[in-house]
Amino acid sequence: MKKYFLATLLIVVSIVLNGAVPCFGADQAKEWECLFCHQYPGLVMPEKADRFKVISIDKEKHFSSPHGKIGCIKCHTLIKKVPHTGLTDIECTTECHLEDKEKIDVIDLSLYSIHENEQCSIENLEDHSSCRVCHPLYPHSNNKKIRALLNMHTGYMVCDMCHLKKVILKNLTYDWKSPDSVKFYGKPYGRYSIEGNKIKEFWRSISRMFKRLFSKEMYPEQAGETGYVTSRIAAFSVEKEKKKIVMNTQDTEKAIEFTTREKIFAPGEKEKELNYFHRDITKKEFSVACNECHSSKGGLDFKKLGYDDQKAKYLKELDVKRLETEYEIFYFPHMFER
């Protein structure tokens, strides 16, 4: 039974986030087993300091594509368990392209180029925190089994939510912070909205006015630029009934200066500087961080944050930590055999 725990958990998550058990034909059944995980936007695996792979799949785009009509395992023949890091080889001629097998076998097909138009992630997020000066947008890379799951949280909460030393910080509450500018890759997700760039549009209108006054040429009206903003969950301290966000932006300039000088620090100076920046920050075990939100004793009130009763209940009781603490390998049960 243990080896089927992941599949059961993912079914529950899917029902919670989508509101119902997915309905599809038998030909797409095994495809949905993979999308239990891969349907969620922001699943990202860092490769290098400035590069990462997106492994989320927009299920609507995928099912409407030619490849959405067949099961994933017909091409991804090596995938039989979790984790399956590095198993990116695909086989396109198990049942399809049989007449073109010789041509396809010599082509260096890229897994990510095939799903490129179906991926969803955040390319840039302007939160102006000191964390982002040194740490990348998707910072979790060490634990191959759960790194994509951890990085998914980038689109929904700030770093401090998991890494604050809450023992020394009292009277904390949690809410959605003011929106930050964001650049999405693929379909936008999370608590986002579209907002025109009012500052750029203002100066553009001033420029057009002067051109009309001092030039005989005609300049057509141009539509203002629009961009996305997104709000994420953050911790706030409460003093005298006033909330103040607990997010280090006051040290951002100092952190930038640190990056320009860190290679010339004397022994001990770099450690002293890092201790200063991380004075309110702790590196927590996966199971501890998860329990602070996804447990009956967790401090996050999902209903207060706007989730309906059903989603709030399951997010509160979701036993995510068992993914990492009790199970090393998960084998996929064939739940949808015809």
Structural description of this entry:
It is globular, with a radius of gyration of 24 Å. The protein is built from 14 helices and 11 strands. The longest helix is centred in the middle third of the chain and has 17 residues, at 198-214. It has a domain at 24-197 and 226-283. The strands form 4 sheets. It has a 4-stranded antiparallel beta sheet with strand order 4-6-8-7, with no helix packed on it. It has a 3-stranded antiparallel beta sheet with strand order 5-9-10, with no helix packed on it. It is 32% helix and 15% strand. With 338 residues, it is α+β, with helices and mostly antiparallel strands. Strand 9 (233-239) and strand 10 form a beta hairpin.
